[in-house]
Amino acid sequence: MTQSLLPSFVKVVEVGARDGLQNESKVTTEDKIALIQNLVDAGVKHIEAGAFVSPKWVPQMADSKLVIESLDHSTAHFSALTPNLKGAQLALDSGIKEFAIFTAASEAFCQKNINCSIDESISRFKEIMTFANENNIKVRGYVSCVMGCPYQGDVEISEVVRVSKLLLELGCYEISLGDTVGVGTPGKTEQLVTALLQDIPANKLAVHFHDTYGQALTNIYAALKLGIATVDAAVAGLGGCPYAKGASGNVATEDLIYMLDGLGINTNIDIKRLCKAGWQISGVLNKAPASKVSLAFQANEA
Length: 302
Fold this sequence. Notes:
Pathway: Metabolic intermediate metabolism; (S)-3-hydroxy-3-methylglutaryl-CoA degradation; acetoacetate from (S)-3-hydroxy-3-methylglutaryl-CoA: step 1/1. This protein is α/β, with parallel strands linked by helices. The protein is 40% helix and 15% strand. Strands 1-2-3-4-5-6-7-8 form an eight-stranded parallel beta barrel, surrounded by six helices. The longest helix is centred in the last third of the chain and has 15 residues, at 271-285.
């Protein structure tokens, strides 16, 4: 496919502050606020800022309300994970204008992750959707394990399509397709996205790749060529899934922006400021960024 078929602009949804930090115990509330502010300063406009989940299960997200209330909501579009009505109510109270709900295309993963079947998870979301509609809140849907599952192995494309359509029918404005264990390849990505596009417009789909096997950027490129123009990423390649053994972090936002800049695709994100945001949070975590672009920029500045 030619350059002209690629989108001219890509919406980047930054998930580092939530998906990236939900397994990190060293991060303070102040660290999270500083990370989000640094991301905003770099030009990032769509940021998943927290999760209103049980502190018993995800204690690292217990301060989400404090984090989100401290943000200037005129500077960016902040969203939060809201798995139930209580979480949605707390998110709204904090100033959130977009909820995120999540299920999976794998029955086994759904049972392990949220202790119910796929169809039960969809049914549980109905009260969240009603609440969101009453308060003029947009809702984004996540579908995990679209390329494979750590428990059941292969996942049928038809099941990804079915679950995505159910979330759209429920009222989600966009579906984020998550390769939770990072087993996808460009060929699989093309097959999946092509199948989804038979029933769902490209502007209602986003991709969310983990880089376990080093395929995330090539998978994103395959999706871009098919018209997908929304991509999830995490600064410094933060993240990983506690329910998916061996799953590494999300594709690094710095690496994504470098690729998009090279393709002439606009994002309005300043890559140097973005790298600095990644170095800052990586310093807090006492580890190097999982971003080759960030490491290269750092070496060049040394």
